[in-house]
Amino acid sequence: MLYHFSEDDRIKIFIPKEKQNRPDFPAVVWAIDEEHEFTYYFPRDCPRIVLRRDEMTTDQQMQLFFNNTTANIIVTVESDWYTRISNQTMFRYSFKDEGFELFDKTAGYYISHQAVKPKTVQIYGDLIERLIQRGIELRFTTNLYPLREAILASNFKGFGIHRFNNAKNNNSLS
């Protein structure tokens, strides 16, 4: 099964559409696998950084990004989003795998060039609790820029940066 998360519970069919941040990419329907679905346990526009350690994570990267934790996955969001995350209800649409092709194995993204009708839709509340139950460490920070800059200055590859255009301006650092 593949999934799509939305704040809208009335979607009857998913029509391929272009992504605003990928104007040169064809219109598609996006889906995610179950292993990576936690990256969408957030309001749609919530900026977040996902760090994932694996056997390729070096000792230096462990010190930089995973110091003082046993978690294999850390999601960091800005503190201003706490209440919205706590109160958010998401809807998980389920799709059959047929008609989808793997787009990004690391992120668990799949795409379909055809319209897709969901099999089911489930209500997902208590998003913070869902993250905790999966063993994911959720961190809050006043500003995501320092973490982003540290990641980009390193050779660490086990990260995802989502909706960063909605992060606080770097000039808001105190």
Describe this structure in words.
The chain has a 4-stranded mixed sheet, with helices on both faces. The chain has one domain (2-172). Helices cover 17% and strands 28% of the residues. The model has no long low-confidence stretch (mean pLDDT 94). The longest helix has 9 residues, at 145-153. The chain is globular, with a radius of gyration of 17 Å. The termini are far apart. The chain has 174 residues and is α+β, with helices and mostly antiparallel strands. The protein contains 4 helices and 10 strands; from the N terminus they run βββαβαββββαβαβ.
Secondary structure category = alpha+beta
Work out the radius of gyration. Answer: 17 Å
Oligomer: single chain
Succession of helices and strands: EEEHEHEEEEHEHE
* Structural domain tally: 1
Give the beta-strand count.
Answer: 10
The helix content is: 10-25%
Q: Main sheet: which strands, in order across?
A: 9-4-3-10
- Give the number of helices: 4
Task: Report on the biggest sheet.
Answer: 4 strands, mixed
The fraction of residues in strands falls at 25-35%
Give the averaged pLDDT, no decimals.
Answer: 94
Task: Give the N-to-C terminal Cα separation.
Answer: 45 Å
Bulk shape: globular
Instruction: Indicate the low-confidence ranges by residue numbers.
Output: none
